[in-house]
Amino acid sequence: MYNKNLDRSNLNGERPMTKAKLQKALNPKVGDYFPKRHGIDFFNHYKEDIKLFGEMNMQWFRMSISWARIFPNGDDKVPNEAGLKFYENVFQECEKYGIKPLVTISHYDTPYNLVEKYGGWKNPQLIEFYKVYAKLVFERYKKYVIHWMPFNEINAAIYSVWAGAGLIDDGEANLSQASYQAMHNLFVANAWAVKIGHEVNPKNQIGCMVAHMTSYPATCKPEDVIHATKEHQERVLFYYDVMCKGEYPKFMLKKFEKEKLQLKFEPADLELLKKYTLDYIGFSYYMSGTSGVDNGQKTEGNLVTFGKNPFLKASEWGWQIDPQGIRYTMNDLYFRYNLPLVVAENGIGVIENLDKNNEIHDDYRIDYLSQHINEMSKAINEDGVEVLGYTLWTPIDVISHGTSEMSKRYGLIYVDQDDLGQGTKKRFKKNSFYWYQKLIKSNVENF
């Protein structure tokens, strides 16, 4: 449900995270509402939801394990068995419908104790806690899972520091220094996940998940092309280079030198990065933008703002719709790194309401997804790009990370819940559900 007159003043988002916001979150007043603390109640609806995914013919279900559900404080000596059992139940339910889980080990959920006690991911001690957690889930779910992503949108450590690195925006003397140090520690933890995951089960495929920021030069002026190239290096290639090639690219070392960032790179860290690189590349793709010396009009995007492209339409949230951009992105990644790709997130957020027949006729979503999937098909069949899989964001409506709104709906399944958590939480199939069901069936039969 969406009510334009609903008072959303007490919705609590988290970007940027300030000391004041954190205190409000830790000491909420009557009437404060934190949507992500409640979500869509998958905990009590997982059987119903996975049954719907099975009916949709889904082959993969990308999901996350909550670190704090397994180790509530992050540094606990003993895990929470009830939490471990819950995910085992989820995996068994997936198995019932022939769905393979694609599991993110840490999805924007560093246990708060690790922030309060250790200062978040800028502290290398978190690597050790993460190793314990990762090894446990690799071992516990060996029977059910072979496709893993150690971190969700790992580059959020730079662009959404609270979610990505457990850092408070106004809580660091030098936020850039803290963010890039956290980023390094996350890289090391990701490499450890590759190492441990392969040791636990040689069949494990362990990749990454990067929020991909596709952009084009704002004009063909050489200055704009150079600007776009440098931004592409820093916003995109940096992350893949470290995890795929196992080394820091020289353009980033130059940046650190220029900005006088004194990062701690232990020799053992660099050896680990070099030895334990990715099995595949996972990324999110929603939109593209432009980049230039003078970008002019700006528009919103995933984690960052872009220059506005006059040739593209945009969603209600200003995210520019560029199906051909996914083909461009896939070519850029595959032929630079020669690793198979997983499109981990792709979709469009829209305000939607059930009609009098409890239906949603979301032809706009079908159009968005079909165009992107068509371009992905061209990348595979015409360009020679190797793709392991595609998981849209998201098969079911969830709370938007960026805006903390339920009304920004991405799902093929509608959840009757508004921004303040009010509603029946009943699930309803959108038109896109039936379209996707037929699409998957056709692709599987013709594969």
Automatic annotation (TrEMBL):
Signal peptide: none annotated. It holds the Pfam family Glyco_hydro_1. InterPro entries: GH, Glyco_hydro_1. One of its GO terms (biological process) is carbohydrate catabolic process. GO terms for cellular component: cytosol. It comes from the Bacteria. One of its GO terms (molecular function) is beta-glucosidase activity. Belongs to the glycosyl hydrolase 1 family. This is 6-phospho-beta-glucosidase. It comes from Spiroplasma alleghenense.
